[in-house]
Amino acid sequence: MSETGSSNAKPLNYDQLNEFFEQQGILSSAAEVHGILTGMVASGASLKGEDWLTLLSDLIHEGQSFKPVVKEQLIEMAADVCASMRDPDLGFNLLLPNDHEALVERLGSMIGWVQSYLVGFGVNQTNLAGLSDDVREVIDDMVEIAKLDFAVDDDEEGERAYYEVVEYLRISAMLCFNELGQRAGTDCVTNKILH
């Protein structure tokens, strides 16, 4: 559950991506970048051309243009989000630290993911009144989750609560995509050709 990818793609590795973004001077963590991309895709944002990369640079790189290697990685991540959102086997997962990391670190990353998801979602869907009750409820829940200050014990109950929230976020992101991303007919096209 801690790594993402569709069944026909190599899963993205949280630790490697985090290190990569850090080395490239990107201010956001891998979870935050993935959250923003997922929010953009789920809300029906177009990933054609370069506009989405410009928007992303405003959100995670102080408006500076990305180096080619970063751009390539972001395009790959966006393509992965698109493919996993469309996966009939519901293969979409949040990009979070591995289970061997301390629960407090995983919770922090999950909060970062959901906050970033809301940012990515909000840049494309500014009028929540026009959305279905289900999507509005999901977004309201995500706002509440994003505000939570988790103080949980690193025990079985804490782990179970963490997994329940992550699973809820996973299903919620797919619900938004099914209503908005699919309907927008964006085809989730990036400049990368999926094989």
Automatic annotation (TrEMBL):
<dbReference type="Pfam" id="PF03695">
    <property type="entry name" value="UPF0149"/>
</dbReference>
<protein>
    <submittedName>
        <fullName>YecA family protein</fullName>
    </submittedName>
</protein>
<dbReference type="InterPro" id="IPR011978">
    <property type="entry name" value="YgfB-like"/>
</dbReference>
<comment type="similarity">
    <text>Belongs to the UPF0149 family.</text>
</comment>
<dbReference type="GO" id="GO:0005829">
    <property type="term" value="C:cytosol"/>
</dbReference>
<dbReference type="InterPro" id="IPR036255">
    <property type="entry name" value="YgfB-like_sf"/>
</dbReference>
